[in-house]
Design brief:
Blueprint: E1 2-4, H1 9-31, H2 37-58, E2 61-64, E3 68-73, E4 76-81, E5 85-92, E6 98-100, E7 105-111, E8 117-120, H3 125-135, E9 140-142
């Protein structure tokens, strides 16, 4: 089952700001009149970087397979076996961990191996957590208090 990322305005604005900042850096050599090969190389590399950022943000999804969770964003693909997942914490946590998110309202998946935890923001997060629990009944779920 595929879950697209939930998106909110602050994270989207942060990504747009990052893209604009990188692209501004890419055109600096042209503004300063340094039309050398190095300026073109910098422009092309930074434009490609922006393309990867945009692709990753647009293509961000979480896939529940038979034996593992796949977190996919552009070229990035991370697999977490269900048996390695210890707990899932639902809270507003944007600034730590391996995070491929489109929203500040995220869930943190703690697991053995790799980064140790991943912060994700699936649409229908309650359903997503329920499906994870179906895949591994030993997962401990901590939900946000209202």
């Amino acid at each position: 089952m595929v879950y697209q990322t939930k998106r909110d305005v602050p994270v989207t604005l942060m990504i747009v700001f990052l893209i604009l900042l990188i692209q501004a850096d890419a055109i600096v050599p042209f503004v300063l009149g340094n039309m050398r090969v190095s300026g073109w190389i910098i422009f092309i590399l930074l434009t490609l970087l922006n393309g990867l950022i945009i692709w990753s943000f647009i293509d961000l999804k979480y896939v529940l397979k038979e034996h593992h969770l796949i977190i996919k964003a552009g070229l990035i693909k991370h697999q977490i076996p269900y048996e390695n997942i210890d707990k899932v914490v639902q809270k507003k946590k944007l600034w730590s961990g391996f995070r491929l998110i489109g929203s500040r309202h995220a869930i943190t998946i703690y697991y053995q191996g790799g980064w140790g935890h991943a912060v994700i923001s699936p649409q229908k997060s309650e359903e997503f957590i329920h499906k994870l629990k179906e895949k591994n009944s030993n997962i401990i779920i901590f939900t946000k208090s209202k």
